[in-house]
Amino acid sequence: MRSIAAGTVRATSGQVIDSYEKALVYEKLNGETTQTSLEQTNKVSQATLSGWLGKFTEAGLASPPDETHRNHKALFTLAELGINLTTLKKRAKPTVQTGGRDVTVIQETR
User: Fold this and answer.
1) Which residues fall within 8 angstroms of residue 81, CB to CB, at 6 or more apart?
2) What would the pLDDT profile of 4-48 be if each residue is shown by its tens digit?
3) Are 38 and 26 in contact (CB under 8 A)?
4) CB of 72 closer than 8 Å to CB of 3
5) Which H helix or E strand runs over 63?
6) What pLDDT is recorded for position 60?
7) Rounded to whole angstroms, how far apart are CA atoms 103 and 44?
8) Which of 3, 13, 87, 106 is the most buried (most CB within 10 A)?
9) Is the separation of the CB atoms in 27 and 38 below 8 Å?
């Protein structure tokens, strides 16, 4: 049953999990890891992470928090979805000059 479900969402999973960073976050969705922890570990903003979690849930790749799991939970492994971390590109991190210092700006394009 699980392999049938994975096959169903596999076609769209590559469009949703389309960057290295998103794949790293998805891998850590065990139902227990907090959103704050994911933000800090993966160096993404709260808004960006919330958007990703919403897309994972809408695509049927993750379950939202419920009585059993306090946080989002991945429903499949990356391997089941046919996603290989080594082939994904990292998100661009443009650098902006501010007061003589280089600052990395992380943006999520939608």
Assistant:
1) 6, 9, 10, 13, 14, 17, 61
2) 555 567 778 989 999 999 999 999 999 999 999 999 999 999 999
3) no
4) no
5) strand 62-63
6) 94
7) 15
8) 13
9) no
